[in-house]
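Q: Structure tokens for this one, please.
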Amino acid sequence: MSSDLEVTRTHPVPDPGIEEHVERWVDVDPAASRRAERQVAACFGLVPLLALGFVAVYFFVPKTWAVQFAGLHAPAQHVWLGLLSGLAILLVGIGAVQWARLLMGDQEISEERHLASSDAATREEALAEVHEGIAQSDLPRRKLIGTTLKIALPALVLPALVPLLDMGPWPGPGTRAATIEKTIWAEGIHLVTDVTYKRIKATDMAVGELVNAAPENIKDLSGEPAKAAVATAKAAIIIVRMDPATIKIPASRKDWQVDGILCYSKICTHVGCPISLWEQTTHHLLCPCHQSTFDLGNSGVVVFGPAGRSLPQLPITTDADGYLVARSDFTVPVGPSYFERDSTHDYKNGDN
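A: Here is the predicted structure, written as tokens:
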């Protein structure tokens, strides 16, 4: 009686057990089994074709084409890209479901619940069940399904990979040198004020003065606002004049200045904020975003804040009429750091 009571407490509802197994049609008819296998393989086999179709549409369907149907007006390229990629993913799902329903093992299994933690013997048993599940998948015998699945799954990467690779040129050293590491400054380009584009004469600048400036050739991009914005963001400069007796000019930069007039990038080397908060007495330039402070009287070295690199200096001289001109482009990339950037040529305190 006590034993019956204990069973009732543990299992208040009688265990109905596993119902009698009924074999599927594909389990008893070899022809139906082969037909199901071909159906699953067809689903997987169509995926690479759809992925290649996605790539073809991406590159060859003009962006000007449109689809008009039942009030829908959308770019044809977008419609086909969505249909092809969506159908490819759908076919992988349909193939996997049909594979599980018709071809994988169909025997029901039951087991007693156990504690969350398992001993070594239980873990070994679990691994054995995993291997049994692999065997139940019937994949070792279904070579056609395995082959098509191996092709279908990698093919799904194409619709995602191709647009990523087409986002722009690969950022190799040559590409970086010709794009983000280059500005429109060049030898002989005049320094002009950033609003009026007025040329700046060296003798007109007073000691302690700061001028926000730009390259004169920025005017050539007036009809191309997007290019002008990018060029300005990289080429913006500040010009300061200091008493030559109060500043440090390394021997390697003696010809980068004109009687105490020096030119630096206006873009902070921390995160790229524009800076022009000038302290005349200390020769310090302060970034308003995160308080990085650069000593313009010592080749733009960082004296405070999170910036990790000196402010790039633009080599300058004067033309025959005494107007300030660039001797070259910046010798190092301007703006914040990035992973591939070579920082070996950045000026450090004490460099000659």
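A few notes: The domain at 174-326 is CATH 2.102.10.10 (Rieske Iron-sulfur Protein). The longest strand covers residues 210-215.
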